[in-house]
Structures are given as C-alpha cells and as structure tokens.
Amino acid sequence: MKKRTFCALLLTGLVPLLAACAPYDYSDRVSEIRSDLFLAETDSFSLTLSCVSREYPYADDGIPCPMTDIVEVSIVLTQATGGTVEVYCDDGWGGEASFSAVFGDYRFSQGVDEFPAGSVSLRVVQDGESHEIVATSVKTEATITPDDALAVLVDAEEETLGRMKQDGVFCGEFCIRLLRRDKNYYYAAVTDGSERTALLLDAETGEVLARRVDTL
C-alpha cells in the first residue's frame, strides 16, 4: 500500500515536468495551407484548382488569424480571345473568372464548406462555349500531409523558431503549400514579420531540397 502511494505521488510530481518537456504545439500558428491541387487540360485551356485554408485578413506579419476554406481556380487559355471565362462546379459554386494581366490567366475564388477529394467535375464556359471536364488531384498515396511538412520545417529550423520566441512564446506564423512542377513538392515557410525562412521539400520523402531566408 505504501509502495502504491509512493508511486502515485511520484507520478503526480512528474506531470508538470513532462508537460514542460512536451514539444511546443505550433498547429495554431499556421496562417495558410494549400492542401491539394487538381489539374485538367483540353485543347482550349489548362486548369488548376487549389484547395486553400487561409487567414483573413491575409498578411505576412507573423500573427495568425482565423482561417477560411476557399477554392482558387486558374485557367490558362491556349489562345487568347479577350472574351469571358466562367467556371462552375457540381458542388454548387462558380461564376465568372477575372483576367490577371500579371500572370496571364483567368482567376476565380470562392469560399467552400468542404474540399473535393480525388477528382472534381467542372464546367468551363469560354466565350459561350461550354466544356465539361474532370480535374484530378495530384496527390498520391506517397504524398505526405501538410502536418508532416510542418513537422519537417519545425525539426529543421529549431534555431530559427527559437529566435522567434519571446518569453517562451512563439511569435510567428507558418505557411504550407503543396506545389506541382515535374513532381509534387511542398513550400514550407515561417515568418515573424521581420524575416522569412522558406524550405522546398520533396512531397514524398520530406527531404529538404532548398532553403531561402528573406528579410521583410
């Protein structure tokens, strides 16, 4: 009986110590996550649909705000016509896309309650001509999650994150974006409003492929 009492007291005393040694939880310090990309292509255009959770208002200032879920669609025409481009989804969202002179594409975004998974059926209307397409996710079973990418960044940039703490409290925000080039990558960045450290990760192995530090 005495042994049980002693063990109970010992465990009670260890709880604060174990809590103090627990890893810092950065999950509430994320201000943007691009979790998936859907691609489709026809003879007339190429389309990219991004699933994004982003703070509002959006500011690269090191202070995370509540996030909202939005879909962002980019449409690049094979041949510019100067006409209108619209995009609609079977899930009930859609409308006219705006032309971006900076990027040379048509862009549409809208808040959603749920992101698509695997594939998504879309209707693109170009100058009154309707195209029914299916955009497919770039993710595979081997693609790591945004949480995994965040964990890689936290582990690789321990010293950087330490500089961003004030009185033991982390004063920064994270951005995790799935990218697609020849294969899948993750852009993983952290900023405190004065500096930004960004990593390019292999989206299957989590390997750090490149690192960049910018002064804001």
Order of helices and strands: HEEEEEEEEEHHEEEEEE
Given the C-alpha coordinates, what overall shape results?
elongated
Instruction: Please count the helical segments.
Output: 3
Percent of residues in beta strands = over 45%
Give a written overview of the molecule.
24% of the residues are buried. It is elongated and about 60 Å long. It starts with a helix and ends with a strand. Strands 1, 2, 3, 4, 5, 6, 7, 8, 9, 12, 13, 14 and 15 form a 13-stranded mixed sheet that branches. Strands 10-11 form a two-stranded antiparallel sheet. It is an alpha+beta fold and 216 residues long. It has helices at residues 2-21, 146-156, 158-163; strands spanning 30-41, 45-55, 67-77, 85-89, 94-96, 98-100, 105-111, 119-126, 129-137, 165-166, 169-170, 173-180, 184-191, 195-202, 208-215. The model is unreliable at 1-22 (pLDDT under 50).
